[in-house]
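hiii, so i know i said id send this last week but things got crazy w the move. better late than never?? heres the sequnce for the chain we talked about at the cafe, plus the structure i predicted for it. fair warning i was half asleep when i ran it
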Amino acid sequence: MSEFEQTEVNRVVRVPKRGHYDKETIYSILDEGYLCHAGFEIDGRPFVIPTLYARVEDSVFIHGSSVSRMLKRLDEGVETCITVTLVDGIVLARSAFHHSMNYRSAVVFGKGRRVVNDEEKLSALKAISENVLKHRWDDSRQPTENELNVTTVIEIPVNSASAKIRSGDPIDDENDYDLPIWAGVLPVKTRFGNAIPDSKLQAGIGLPDYLKDPLGE
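okay and structure toks below
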């Protein structure tokens, strides 16, 4: 299936023409992001928690401490909603009312399950690490048995999803186009600064190549 079925859960209601349901678009947004927000409820109260993640095929993986209330709750198989948003630009209209953002957002729906197999757990943790910074996992000390035991990994199969994308110029009221006010888009891009060495770094350890150009540009 290359496209998710539109339902009452995942259908984009506000400006539906900006909605996308194909996996290619949705997964490209997930793969570009670093941080997701996971929504869940405990005793009828809603919570939204930011966390690192990775998409592997048709699943999203998150991890954390084994005492995390979020992960404990998701391990119970409750419905969760995972969101990722990428900001591409600040849209500057002539009127304050019509200012906006150019963005790409993905919303994923599913039920979590705990990953218990150590090999699958390590594979998921590597995927999360690689989603943040490629090549770092293989350049790091691997987790000990105790570290694995106190870490919970949750897999959320993507049962339903949608994306919403805004791009392009501001949309002003027709009468406002004659106003002597600058309008347009201020692009927003993710950039890494120069790596800062740890104060306890041993002498003679040089900067790895993957940190010289983290975005591969």
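btw The longest strand covers residues 79-92. thought thatd interest u
miss u guys!!
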